[in-house]
Amino acid sequence: MAGAQHNDETLVRQWEGRRRLQRQALEKLALRQASGPEEIETVLREVTASSAAALGVERVSVWSYTPARDGITCLDLYELSRDHHSEGASLLERDFPGYFRAMASERAIVASDARTDPATREFSPSYLVPHGISSMLDAPIRVGGELFGVVCHEHVGPARVWTPDEVDFTGSVADLTALAISTSRLRQSEELLQLALDAGDIGTFVWSPRTEQLVWDERTHQLFDWPPERFRGTFADLSDRVHPDDRALLKAAFERSMSTGGEFRALYRARRRDGSERIIESRGRTYLATDGSPDHLSGVCFDISERYHAEQRAYEHQKLESLGLLAGGIAHDFNNLLVGVLGNASLLLMDTQLRPETSSVLLEIQAAGERAANLCGQLLAYAGRGSFAIRPVDLSALVTEASELHRAALGKGVRVRAKLEPSLPAVDADITQLRQVLMNLAINASEAIGAGEGTITITTKATQLDTDTLSTWPESGSLAPGPYVLLSVADDGPGIDPALESRIFDPFFSTKGPGRGLGLAAIQGIVRRHHGALRLASSEGAGARFDLLLPASDEPAPRQPGPCAAPATRGVGTALVIDDEPLVQRLARAVLERAGYRVVLADNGDEALARYTESPEAFAVAVVDLTMPGVRGIDVAIHLRTMRPELPIVICSGYSEDQLGEDPVELRGAAFVHKPYRAADLLASVREVIAASQGC
């Protein structure tokens, strides 16, 4: 009886000893995790070593499924007698299907005789026998409801009967291991999220309607330029940093998300302490409490200023291109009408027998037509299709030449100061268009100064620009690094209201009343056509400056030629006039017949070629419209020259001379007349090409 009692006491002490070791091991693992984040490899080494000591088994290992989930890989194996950790072994499901079925369905795999147990006997020849393993006690690891792997306890020596407390301990180890893996994954996700936030320059925020507290992370404080020590964490703090015009929009977005429990999204301007503004985009979502009321709104915010302004520039560019196409089409058709107005008025004015009152009326008609033609020119310049004759131009010489014109056109109290760089590289430009640009900028500056006294400073200089410097200019994507010439027109007037700066290049926008025309929009079109850029620098109360950047030419500016001898006054021969506009045809016929020429008319290229082919030598000159339906005017002119290389040709168009392309060999010596033209313009060009063909 005493012996039986002694045996019972021994079993109790053994059980209590095992439980104490198991409890200490579990407490150690739990405290290790509670003390702070650690690398998962370190945690797994602690799991295997502590479990081996608590159960007194030789081998403890943790395994995880492979990415393909066709087997498991050993993350850590601890051997108690050697106090040694290793990893890397793998087991494939196809080789041990019974074990994998048990792992997927059981809370624990209890195999006191591992070599005969249905779940583990498949390991016998390749794994159990070589390592002397007699018993196995394994527990699957489930993370987030998914089977992650297994923790294995392997006894070496005589077969071991696993007790219920040991089975429970193994399950607890598997649970703690799953918790460690979940914690590690969460920490990795947080680290990746923080890396993404840092890389994307993204801030985070949380707003609680219950406490009316707004919490910002460090990056959000930086975005809003609001130090944490000055931030009270209220919605009013946020509103103070938002542009007044955007506060209602932001508040409405908050309230909408709170009322619906849906997405929060807002785009607004944030004001920094230095007075600058940044474009902020905020996104988030309202999360509801168990009673359905809004618990908190959390989200992210990021500075999209650069992207926003780039998108706005692209949108403005597309808008200008669309308007340009419309303006160009209108101007082309209107130019043809003006040919009839200007041409016929000038034709009548050539009559020396006119009464004075008739001449006066015709001069008024001609002046009105020329003003309309100037507006057409602005439309075409805005469209980038104006009448350009590109030549090397010296900007410093152009400013000097225009000085007298400036004095006559500017206010009486305005003084013009020129700071011109000598030996300035030429720019490839249309000198007439650049004169107009310079004059318009000077007049704008004079009007900004007003009736008082002020100074306009015109500066030229050569500069070498790289990619970084060019990026500060509008439309920098079309500018290539290299040599440029800079023309600046600055005034000391009141400057331009920042609210208007984004609109000053819009067509017909003006602060000076109606009837101002295309203004800066036309200048911008001219500059764009010259492959340059235009920008504004202005401060309220400190004046404004317009900078014009043009690529430097490889060629020097030519010297101005002397006057030419006057051509003959009476024409001889037949002129072939090719134009699809009857109004233009009638004018050309009247002008040329009055000058002594016979005229043959053609409505299109096919008709012209048919008439010319009948008798090429009968024609003294061909007048060809560049823009016609069907066969292009340029192709008609080349075909005429192919049949007769010396044929004098005059090309007419309201568009640019560079529509001829790379100066076709067949058209060398041809004259170019811009529509709308006066009678004298057409007649002078006809006489010029005929005289040139005769060697005069």
Strand-helix topology:
Blueprint: H1 2-34, H2 40-55, E1 59-65, E2 71-79, E3 84-86, E4 90-92, H3 97-105, E5 109-111, H4 124-131, E6 133-143, E7 146-156, H5 164-199, E8 202-208, E9 213-216, H6 218-224, H7 235-241, H8 247-260, E10 263-271, E11 277-288, E12 294-303, H9 305-349, H10 356-382, E13 391-393, H11 395-409, E14 414-420, E15 427-429, H12 431-449, E16 454-465, H13 467-470, E17 482-491, H14 520-529, E18 533-538, E19 544-551, E20 574-578, H15 582-594, E21 598-602, H16 605-614, E22 619-625, H17 633-643, E23 649-653, E24 671-674, H18 679-693
Parallel strand pairs: 14-16, 20-21, 20-22, 22-23, 23-24
Antiparallel strand pairs: 1-2, 1-7, 2-3, 2-4, 5-6, 6-7, 8-9, 8-12, 10-11, 11-12, 13-15, 16-17, 17-19, 18-19
How does this structure look, described?
By secondary structure, the protein is of the alpha+beta class. It folds into five domains: 12-191, 2-Layer Sandwich (Beta-Lactamase); 200-303, Beta-Lactamase; 309-382; 391-551, Heat Shock Protein 90, CATH 3.30.565.10; 574-693, Rossmann fold (3-Layer(aba) Sandwich), CATH 3.40.50.2300. The protein contains 18 helices and 24 strands. Strands 1, 2, 3, 4, 5, 6 and 7 form a seven-stranded antiparallel sheet that branches. Strands 9-8-12-11-10 form a five-stranded antiparallel sheet, with helices on both faces. Strand 2 (71-79) and strand 3 form a beta hairpin. Helix 9 runs antiparallel to helix 10. It is elongated.
